[in-house]
């Protein structure tokens, strides 16, 4: 059993345990974004070519989820750890990257809500460094188009076997698509985070 305190390390926990702990942690620190949204943002930033070295990405993240206010030291450390683990999992030759979502035992509508929040946030993070999709491969452009459609999903679904299967298929598709983004754009990236103001 792991300790329930919110500042315990996250190693060796399942992703659903990590999700619950992070949700509690961010709520405790009065962040309005959920753990799924923050993970999605970070995944989109890293997969889109942003570097998580230095502090530029933290400034951008605070603009996106904390109204530009500096993060408390504990939050800075926690999101830095999230970003490091996420970047490592995207580089994993065993394809170990996973979306950070509620437990499979959570109600389906709750998991779908988190899934759509994750992909919406991924697209925001991805758009920080990638505003022109014309230079992307056909496969990646198609994946991004699909993500945009998934982000509009109606979460009012029947909690049945078919809906469960569809949920897992979509989750797996998003997982693979995020890795595809990273392999094409983030793998050899040394670029820092830009703000949208510098892109126009």
Automatic annotation (TrEMBL):
Cellular-component GO terms for this entry: cytosol
Pfam families linked: UPF0149
SUPFAM superfamilies: YgfB-like
InterPro entries xrefs: YgfB-like (IPR011978), YgfB-like_sf (IPR036255)
Protein family according to the UniProt entry: Belongs to the UPF0149 family.
Name of protein: YecA family protein
């Amino acid at each position: 059993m792991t300790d329930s305190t919110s500042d315990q390390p996250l190693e060796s926990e399942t992703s659903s345990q990590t999700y619950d702990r992070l949700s509690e942690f961010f709520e405790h620190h009065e962040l309005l974004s959920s753990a799924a949204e923050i993970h999605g943002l970070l995944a989109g930033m890293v997969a889109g070519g942003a570097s998580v070295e230095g502090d530029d990405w933290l400034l951008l993240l605070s603009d996106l989820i904390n109204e530009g206010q500096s993060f408390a030291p504990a939050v800075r450390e926690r999101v830095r750890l999230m970003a490091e683990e996420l970047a490592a999992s995207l580089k994993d030759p065993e394809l170990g990257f996973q979306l950070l979502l509620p437990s499979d035992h959570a109600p389906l509508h709750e998991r779908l809500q988190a899934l759509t929040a994750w992909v919406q946030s991924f697209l925001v993070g991805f758009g920080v460094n990638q505003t022109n999709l014309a230079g992307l491969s056909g496969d990646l452009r198609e994946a991004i188009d699909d993500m945009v459609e998934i982000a509009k999903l109606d979460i009012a679904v029947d909690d049945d076997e078919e809906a469960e299967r569809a949920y897992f298929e979509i989750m797996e598709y998003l997982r693979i698509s995020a890795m595809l983004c990273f392999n094409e754009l983030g793998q050899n990236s040394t670029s820092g985070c830009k703000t949208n103001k510098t892109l126009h």
